[in-house]
Write a structure and sequence with these properties.
The protein has 345 residues and is α+β, with helices and mostly antiparallel strands. The protein has helices at 2-18, 24-35, 40-46, 53-91, 109-122, 137-140, 174-183, 224-239, 292-297, 314-322, 335-338; strands at 127-128, 134-136, 160-161, 164-169, 188-197, 209-219, 245-252, 255-264, 281-290, 306-313. The structure holds phenylalanine. The site of phenylalanine has 11 residues, from β9 and β10.
């Protein structure tokens, strides 16, 4: 009798080991049969009273090992099932399908022009330097020979800091000329790209913030001819090789002599159009020979060195190049507008 029960348990052990339920339902049936609340092992434990005393322990251990085997088997069955489910999901994933299209984006037209200017000037030996947007009165005006009563210093034109009127938002990148001259000895050949601010009423043609690129060259014997040659090279590189330049006498406190830079209108090429207002010339910036007083203010010996400077508005050039008729479009960050400009030229 006792041996019969032992045989039954051993048989059960084999049955559990060889069972191969696969589906969720089959595995659940396995669990109920061997591990559920009315499982088959419980009745076997009850048989222990029919076992002779000296084999009771052996029997108990055997039934226990069957139980552990059933538990281990159930756990591995469950893990297998999860693996197959994951695999099925993985296989139903088509890795060759094309991805959602990515919007790569484009550079802002102001950045495109700025990069082009930097690249063009670097080819003739200009390095790039940057200053600060919050500037002090001395770097923005005084060192640049701008008298106390100059209209640019008026609150109407310049944003002064409310809690510190000695500081202001720079009105031009010329302040970086000053910082560079204070820090370096000639020869100096640098350009200064950056954002500037003026208290202007915003309209299609003016904005309270815009960008400039300024150039400065200081060495012994730098002449107006060098300035003119540099501007000519620049204009031809940026606007095309047929471009002519015209330097129109003007005034800036920090250059003497000074000139406005005009280029021949590349839109009508001399025919006259509304961009050049039928003059065939368009203004792109200002320039001049650095005033000796400015050199002295910045610790550079004006007896020994001369230099030239030029500056231009980046938005202005972008508007001319891309025929944009409203400067505000450049600050609205409307992607439908901005993505039209992908290449320099
Ligand atoms: N700083 C001048 C302006 O903002 C431009 C300029 C730069 C003129 C350098 C001459 C030389 O109008």
């Amino acid at each position: 009798m006792a041996q019969e029960i032992f045989d039954k348990v051993n048989h059960l052990l084999v049955e559990i080991k060889t069972a191969s339920p696969k589906s969720l339902e089959e595995i659940e049936a396995f669990r109920i049969k061997y591990l559920g609340s009315k499982n088959i092992l419980k009745s076997l434990f009850g048989e222990i009273r029919n076992i002779a005393n000296d084999r009771k322990k052996e029997f108990g251990q055997l039934v226990n090992s069957v139980k552990q085997t059933a538990e281990a088997k159930f756990q591995s069955l469950q893990e297998q099932l999860e693996d197959t489910q994951e695999n099925t999901e993985l296989h139903s994933l088509d890795l060759t399908a094309s991805a959602e299209p990515l919007e790569i984006g484009t550079r802002h037209p102001v950045s495109i022009i700025m990069n082009k200017i930097v690249e063009t000037c670097s080819r003739i030996g200009f390095t790039v330097a940057e200053g600060r947007e919050i500037e002090d009165d001395w770097h923005n005006f005084t060192a640049l020979n701008t008298p106390e009563d100059h209209p640019a210093r008026d609150m109407q034109d310049t944003y002064y800091l409310l809690n510190d009127p000695e500081h202001l938002l720079r009105t031009h990148t010329s302040s970086v000329q000053v910082r560079t001259m204070m820090q370096q000895k000639p020869p100096i050949r640098s350009i200064f790209p950056g954002r500037v601010y003026r208290n202007e009423t915003i309209s299609a043609r003016a904005h309270c913030q815009f960008h400039q690129v300024e150039g400065l060259y200081i060495d012994e014997n730098v002449s107006f001819a060098d300035l003119k040659q540099t501007i000519e090279y620049f204009a031809k590189e940026i606007f095309g090789h047929q471009t002519k330049i015209r330097l129109r006498p003007s005034f800036f406190p920090f250059t003497e002599p000074s000139a406005e830079i005009d280029i021949s209108c590349f839109i009508c090429e001399g025919e006259g159009c509304n961009v050049c207002k039928y003059t065939t010339w368009v203004e792109i910036g200002g320039c001049g020979m650095v005033d000796p007083a400015v050199l002295d203010n910045c610790g550079i010996d004006s007896q020994k060195y001369t230099g030239f400077a030029f500056g231009m508005g980046v938005e202005r050039i972008a508007m001319l190049k891309y025929r944009i008729n409203d400067i505000r479009l450049l600050f609205e960050n409307d992607i439908r507008f901005l993505k039209q400009f992908t290449a320099a030229f």
